[in-house]
């Protein structure tokens, strides 16, 4: 990925970050914050070839199922090859995505593009370590097909590409969720059937070059509040995850998609599968782009453990999201599953 053109327009991230820093009584620099979390060398996540799931050989298929389950238990993250989504399609949406983010900030923020789904920085940040140096379009799948000048504007070709990517990632997420449920010996009733176009999201991410690398996150440490996330990232790198109390830098693999377990799957599996803290670091010179699919249920869906005794009280996804939002507002960051542990 080439360095950003000097004439390109970024969101006013520096202004927002400086305002937060100046209003913080005791600012916490990221270097201080990360002292207790040692970074180990770049590594490659477990890689699973999904051709095994389509094999007529029962033992080969079972080996693939076990590999997915083991990675979900030990890492909470894994990579998939032969996932069924063509490289041409992923390249096409990446080109459209780059064109979209090159728009002037004012147009992205005020033109209601992609159903007014544009977000930048962190409006709820209460200190520098809560700030995200990034921008994104976070689009519900049900809104992708909507027409109208204010939805796509001159980016009308983006609609068809997003529809194809959303459909392909939905199918892949459903397959992987079914495999993980199968491995638990549990029924899929209520999950993942409750995850559909009306509840899931596609997110286009952009991390502009940052003049303060080491002082601010591209995306602050967090876990995902869904069942599964599928990520297509570029080759710039920057994704890190927590492994055995240490941050692991994920080595980009051009042929693979990254899959990670979300909070709801950890609760549903009674802590068998792990929703792992992860973050994105900033880069001083390079733009970073990624596309993420979030497999979410309806807000009314009850989340209960598939095995008893349960480590968590039963809750709805809506209740979970409300608690997350309250915690972010009060303490500046998500607390998540510990709020619901028995």
TrEMBL record:
Cofactors needed by this protein, per the record, are:
L-ascorbate
User: What does the UniProt keyword field contain?
Assistant: Dioxygenase, Iron, Metal-binding, Oxidoreductase
| Uppermost EC category | oxidoreductase
What processes in GO biological process is this protein linked to?
gibberellin metabolic process
Domain Fe2OG dioxygenase, first and last residues per copy: 196-297
- Known EC number(s)? 1.14.11.13
| Protein name according to UniProt | gibberellin 2beta-dioxygenase
């Amino acid at each position: 990925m080439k360095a950003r053109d000097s004439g390109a327009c970024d969101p006013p991230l520096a202004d927002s970050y400086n305002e937060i820093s100046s209003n913080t009584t005791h600012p916490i620099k990221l270097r201080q914050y990360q002292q207790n979390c040692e970074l180990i060398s770049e590594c490659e996540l477990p890689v699973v070839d999904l051709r095994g799931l389509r094999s007529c050989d029962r033992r080969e298929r079972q080996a693939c199922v076990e590999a997915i389950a083991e990675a979900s238990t030990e890492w909470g993250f894994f990579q998939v090859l032969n996932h069924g989504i063509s490289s041409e399609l992923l390249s096409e949406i990446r080109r459209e995505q780059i064109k979209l983010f090159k728009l002037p900030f004012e147009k992205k923020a005020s033109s209601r593009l992609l159903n007014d789904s544009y977000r930048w920085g962190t409006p709820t940040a209460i200190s520098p370590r809560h700030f995200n140096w990034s921008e994104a379009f976070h689009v519900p799948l049900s809104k992708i097909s909507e027409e109208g000048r204010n939805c796509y504007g001159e980016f009308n070709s983006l609609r068809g590409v997003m529809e194809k990517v959303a459909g392909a990632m939905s199918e892949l997420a459903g397959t992987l969720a079914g495999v993980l449920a199968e491995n638990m010996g549990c029924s899929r009733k209520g999950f993942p059937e409750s995850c559909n176009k009306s509840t899931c999201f596609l997110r286009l991410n952009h991390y502009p070059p940052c003049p303060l690398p080491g002082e601010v996150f591209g995306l602050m440490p967090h876990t995902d509040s869904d069942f599964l996330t599928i990520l297509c990232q570029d080759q710039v790198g920057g994704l890190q995850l927590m492994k055995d109390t240490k941050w692991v830098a994920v080595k980009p693999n051009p042929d693979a998609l990254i899959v990670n377990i979300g909070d709801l799957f950890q609760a549903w599996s009674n802590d068998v599968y792990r929703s792992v803290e992860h973050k994105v670091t900033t880069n001083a010179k390079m733009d970073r782009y990624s596309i993420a699919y979030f497999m979410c249920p309806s807000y009314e869906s009850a989340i209960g453990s598939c095995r008893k005794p349960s480590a968590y009280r039963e809750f709805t996804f809506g209740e979970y999201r409300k608690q997350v939002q309250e915690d972010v507002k009060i303490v500046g960051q998500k607390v998540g599953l510990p709020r619901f542990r028995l």
